[in-house]
Amino acid sequence: MKTIAVLTSGGDAPGMNAALRAVVRMAIYKGIRVMGVQRGYSGLINGELFEMDRRSVSDIIHKGGTILRTARCEEFKTPEGREKAANVLRVFGIDGLVVIGGDGSFTGAQYLSEMGIATVGIPGTIDNDLPYTEYAIGFDTALNTVLDAINKIRDTSSSHERISVVEVMGRNCGDIALHAGIGGGAEKVIIPEKGYEIDDLCKTIFEGKLRGKMHNLIILAEGVGGANELAKEIEEITGIESRATILGHIQRGGSPSAFDRMLASRMGVAAVEVLMEGKSGRVIGMRDGKIIDEDINTALAMPRKLDEELYEISKILSY
């Protein structure tokens, strides 16, 4: 393994820069040349590669986003686009590729692996929707961003005796909503894996009012529906003033938490080690607090399971 390349792809996540830093410095420490790919697979197809050294990743561990930038690439979804990308890697003499991103990015790495390119993926997505790993880089930071917002929203919701519906990210995965709902003391957590019945929700609100509850905080995962529509429906049924807050892309930004910096650093080092061992088509993850590598085909085929125990805890604590 003489030369490797690294790219960030898909939605950005806090901690991507920390992972990039670890990959570059670990590789150089082992005597391996590193090429950075700008703008993900789009930049790979267009040959946007440049050599990186230790200084290239100085003072970035605390920064959100990704200094390599990221972009969606429709061309890469075609066989012709993937062949272009593979040819660029060959032209630059790349022996291995590290891909930092989510499931879509991993699918791209899977294709390249099947074309004979040594690849390894590092999970970077705030959604935490990759079932083979307990945590993805960015999830913890996004969760803390949501909790900070919830604390502020609760203050004004309590003052006005309102119902606040807070919509969080996660696509079809309810991890952000579930963890934020428990950590933020929400009265109701609505996630795609379980859904909800509006009559049951409003009944819970009425019962809380009879017990003297003066406000309600509802956490809604974006994969279930829209916060504005839900807030309007709740107000029409209960007669209680309801407001919606959509946190949006604020969840993707900000300085990564200590947990995400540590996770990214450990995973970045592990990715280089996997390539040095001659492995290909692998993804890095965490299980039981330990860093592992898994076959990419197995990882992408794993069904995602909701933590039922955690969901039950959310219901018990919101009673």
TrEMBL record:
Sites where the protein binds Mg(2+): D103
Active site: D127 (proton acceptor)
GO MF: 6-phosphofructokinase activity; AMP binding; ATP binding; fructose-6-phosphate binding; identical protein binding; metal ion binding; monosaccharide binding
Residues annotated for ADP binding in this entry: R21, A22, V23, V24, R25, R154, G185, A186, E187, R211, K213, M214, H215
Gene3D superfamilies: 3.40.50.450, Phosphofructokinase domain
The protein's required cofactors: Mg(2+)
Keyword NADP: no
Positions bound to substrate: T125, I126, D127, R162, M169, G170, R171, E222, R243, H249, I250, Q251, R252
Coiled coil feature spans: none
Family: Belongs to the phosphofructokinase type A (PFKA) family. ATP-dependent PFK group I subfamily. Prokaryotic clade 'B1' sub-subfamily.
Free-text function comment from the UniProt entry: Catalyzes the phosphorylation of D-fructose 6-phosphate to fructose 1,6-bisphosphate by ATP, the first committing step of glycolysis.
Oligomeric form and interacting partners: Homotetramer.
Name of the molecule in the record: ATP-dependent 6-phosphofructokinase
Gene that this sequence comes from: pfkA
